[in-house]
Amino acid sequence: MIVGQRSDVRGEFASSFDMSEADRMKQTSAGHSTCDEAPGRVVPVVDPRRCEDKGPCVEACPYDVFEIRKLTPGERGALPLLTRFKVWVHGGRQAFVVRPDSCHACGLCVTACPEKAITLAKAPGA
């Protein structure tokens, strides 16, 4: 192994994430073989104490369920003090579930999140 090769390989992996990689993850993520769950029966839940605005959930989700945005003062104020500091360090942004009715429960977001901040839960009323 050449010195510095590790960072090159990591960069290649990060830049080579394409639909074929998403399809591969789709086959193995969260115990689901496909994203065939009826939309809206299961919804992703983002733990704001863990989310650090890295964004792989947005990239991994084939149904555009997530968006990354800046927290409002009210959202930020509702967080514990240490979490507010962490959010500030990471630019004041987090992932939000903006289209929960579009979720097909494939688990790609759960697998992609490096902070393990996303879980899937039964939708209210489902």
Short structural summary:
The chain is an alpha+beta fold and 126 residues long. It has helices at 5-15, 19-28, 56-60, 73-77, 81-89, 108-112; strands spanning 42-46, 66-70, 93-97, 118-122.
Folded structure, characterized:
The strands form two sheets. The chain has a two-stranded antiparallel ribbon with strand order 1-4. It has a two-stranded antiparallel ribbon with strand order 2-3. The protein is α+β, with helices and mostly antiparallel strands and about 130 residues long. It has helices at about 5-15, 20-30, 55-60, 75, 80-90, 110; strands at about 40-45, 65-70, 95, 120.
Write the layout of secondary structure elements.
Blueprint: H1 5-15, H2 19-28, E1 42-46, H3 56-60, E2 66-70, H4 73-77, H5 81-89, E3 93-97, H6 108-112, E4 118-122
Antiparallel strand pairs: 1-4, 2-3
